[in-house]
Specification:
Bound molecules: flavin-adenine dinucleotide
Low-confidence stretches: none
Largest sheet: 6 strands, mixed
Structural class: alpha/beta
Strand content: 15-25%
Mean pLDDT: 93
Length: about 240
Amino acid sequence: MYDVIVIGGGSAGLMACVAAAEHGASVLLLDKGDQLGRKLGISGGGRCNVTNAKETDELIRHIPGNGRFLYSSFQNLDNQGIMRFFENLGIALKEEDNGRMFPVTDKAKTVVDALVGKIVSLGVEIRTKEPVKELIQNGQHVQGVKLLSGKTILGRSVIIATGGKSVPQTGSTGDGYPWAEAAGHTITELYPTEVPIVSGESWIQSKELQGLSLRDIGLSVLDAKGKTVISHRGI
Ligand SMILES: Cc1cc2nc3c(=O)[nH]c(=O)nc-3n(C[C@H](O)[C@H](O)[C@H](O)COP(=O)(O)OP(=O)(O)OC[C@H]3O[C@@H](n4cnc5c(N)ncnc54)[C@H](O)[C@@H]3O)c2cc1C
């Protein structure tokens, strides 16, 4: 019987393992892929934008919808805490435009390797190629997990960190949503973010800009009358 079973070894699952193991819990990490942190490895164009150096209030202003719910999370671990965390793992960080923080190596792999190294050093048991099928529940009380192989593993707590639905080839196929719902959580409607902008403009459709990469770009969305609905400037 483990104190904590973490399902999913992406950024959330790896951080959950660190937090649980640092508090003395016996931790088992299960991932269905053959390697941990695959999406993390392609994040930030392969360089991993680990956090942003700007003030908390400014970060929250840029969260779509009501970002104020993040204040309580930031109380526990804010951007400065994240920077200290990675620097304590031996990862030197550098600040780029708009406060974006990257590893000096410019390699997301540095971040993945440091996180995996940290959980190994904390004694977390890691099992890859081990897809979880469902949670074992007694009413709404979660008692462990059932693997696709048919085996069961018991745990006092189970953390679902199976990711969203984007880039499913990295392993995140949305498996955790029905489990969380069955355990009594509310799942809001899912929708994609950071998606490509589709335009019918002839100078876009002709693909004459294809392959061009520009810095410091302003983008405005106009309504049918040509009035600006929203503008954004950045990289
Ligand atoms: C192209 C791209 C660039 C990005 N760039 C940045 C960036 O620069 N900075 C930033 O902060 N964020 C960035 N993000 C977002 C960031 O990568 C994600 O928010 C983050 O990876 C989510 O972590 P996660 O742990 O929730 O899920 P994931 O990283 O998706 O991990 C989920 C894990 O769960 C495992 N899993 C799923 N189902 C099961 C199952 N049934 N049994 C066992 N294991 C299972 C998967 O194999 C996977 O390893 C980027 C995302 C993309 C796609």
